[in-house]
Amino acid sequence: MANAPAAAHALDVLVLLAQHASPLPAASIARELGLPRSTTYHLLAVLVDRGFVLHLPEERRYGLGVTAFELGSAYTRHAPLQRLARPVLARLADSTGQNAHLGVLHGRDVVYVVEERVAGRPSLVSDLGVRLPASLTATGLAILAALPAAQVRALFPSADAFVQRHGVGPTSLSTLRPHLSRTRTRGYAVEEGLVTPGLDSVATAVLDPAGHPVAAVAVTAESTHLAGAAREQVVGKVRRTAQEVSRRMGRREARAH
């Protein structure tokens, strides 16, 4: 494992470049990573040779190369979120006896990417690939509540950005904010009949290693199955499922001090 430190340093260089909006000088890379300049230049030379890093000679700076982009594209093609989440969602559906799903934010909509249906339960509109307004769904509210306020404002700049179903749901940012505040206070989102009358949903956000919401886990059931103590039991399982998916995506829980 003699090359392990060098490999770790090379990965540190790539992560550092990915965290900056523009290319960096070698001196800045060396300083931020605490590496000798000679080591930094050697690492950069290898990474440039392999296409992971691009050298901009006129600017004397380094940025991510085409190979790094190809890796990111391959990550997307492999659909890691769906693959990692599907077995966990299946267990959630089995343990609750209710339909479970995973949705991701796409613009102002939620797109459902994993659906685990339970025989005998009501049919849902949230099939694979279906888009629904994020402001109406528990899945969407869970994600929006975990986003910075500025990003939520950018997504919903005016009343025209809001869509209603059955004549109900938030119609402005001022009417959406209380839903997000309650979601943060409770630790989970609730939707009661806004998408389909008689069906309720509870959801919790899935967080990436940086704490950004990448998706949300939800259970949808008839209103009578998500009331009182029954809701609390389902919410506990939804939370644990979201935490497990987050862990599978690389997130580590903060240690208590």
From TrEMBL:
- Entry protein name: Glycerol operon regulatory protein
Biological process GO terms, please? Answer: glycerol metabolic process; negative regulation of DNA-templated transcription
InterPro entries from the xrefs? GAF-like_dom_sf, HTH_MetabolicPath_Reg, Tscrpt_reg_IclR_C, Tscrpt_reg_IclR_N, WH-like_DNA-bd_sf, WH_DNA-bd_sf
Any one Gene Ontology molecular-function term assigned to this protein's record:
DNA binding
Enumerate the PROSITE patterns for this protein.
HTH_ICLR (PS51077), ICLR_ED (PS51078)
Q: Mind listing the UniProt keywords for this protein, alphabetically?
A: DNA-binding, Glycerol metabolism, Transcription, Transcription regulation
Which Gene3D superfamilies does this chain map to?
3.30.450.40, Winged helix-like DNA-binding domain superfamily/Winged helix DNA-binding domain (1.10.10.10)
